[in-house]
Amino acid sequence: MIELKNVSKWYGNYQVLTDCSTRINKGEVVVVCGPSGSGKSTLIKTINALEPIQQGEIWVDRVPVHDPATNLPKLRSHVGMVFQHFELFPHLSVTENLTIAQIKVLGRSADEAKQRGLKMLDRVGLMAHKDKFPGQLSGGQQQRVAIARALSMDPIVMLFDEPTSALDPEMVGEVLDVMVGLAHEGMTMMCVTHEMGFARKVSNRVIFMDVGGKILEDCTRDEFFNHPEERQTRTKDFLNKIL
Ligand code: ADP
Ligand code: MG
Fold first, then answer.
1. What are φ and ψ of residue 62, in 5° steps?
2. Which residues form the ABC transporter domain (predicted)?
3. Percent of the chain with pLDDT over 70
4. The 3-state secondary structure of 27-50, one letter per residue
5. Taking burial as the number of CB atoms within 10 A of a residue's CB, which of 81, 97, 163, 170 is the most buried?
6. Which of 199, 136, 188 is nearest to 164 (CA)?
7. What is the Cα–Cα distance from 112 to 108, expressed in whole angstroms?
8. Is the CB of 141 under 6 A from ligand 1?
9. pTM for the whole structure
């Protein structure tokens, strides 16, 4: 579903991604972790071309993202992205937040968009809040609306960039629960997160990135958590700090 081949990227002279290669098969959940500044956000943003790359290839569902001829708005309409900050439109109601892109990008009718949006809102357990504005919801609820909004677009993959790290601790669980549900339903997911409980529970693979934007580990969940002796020193140090 997603393939990165020898991807490198620079910001000016600074190399932020160095020869990154990996693939994510349909239905796989891949967790990306690593120290701050190691290029995790940049890597995940290259997948829907929010960040351009200078070398290598990125393929999403057989579409060459690196190819200048690729229709990027069309690609992005199928790739769900959830950021650390929820980025809901503050002046629109929850329902309007859920429907606007369906109408403007996918060309759905208002009725169809509302039906789909409310179905997804129900999934994340927030039907009672459909007429509220984002500012009237807690951070955890806003993030669940952001997930429902992405799901309303019928994404073929979901990308998450530290979706729980801006939340108060008591709200982390409700967002992770929604993500666990998605994983169990077979959604293809790439998640930048340091929630190792989530990684242990549902990931198929764990990628560890290190400074300089290098993929230092790309291994199965079992290898990552149950065979620490085989991990690189940098990975072990990192895990010792966060676990
Ligand atoms: P992470 O998500 O792992 O913390 P990022 O992908 O956000 O890492 O950033 C990787 C490195 O690239 C950091 O050193 C950061 O300062 C730098 N960086 C990120 N965005 C830009 C930008 N737009 N211009 C220049 N440098 C950037
Ligand atoms: Mg980041």
1. 70, 10
2. 2-236
3. 100
4. CCEEEEECCCCCCHHHHHHHHCCC
5. 163
6. 199
7. 6
8. no
9. 0.96
Question: How does pLDDT run across 2-52, given as a tens digit for each residue?
Answer: 999 999 999 999 999 999 999 999 999 999 999 999 999 999 999 999 999
- Whose tokens are 């239905």? That residue is 27
Q: Which ligand places an atom closest to the C-alpha of 211?
A: 1
**211 contacts: CB under 8 Å, gap ≥ 6:** 35, 37, 38
Cβ of 193 below 6 Å from ligand 1: no
Q: What is the ipTM of this complex?
A: 0.97
Q: Measure 39 CA to ligand 1 centroid, in angstroms.
A: 6
Give the ligand with the smallest distance to the CA of 209: 1
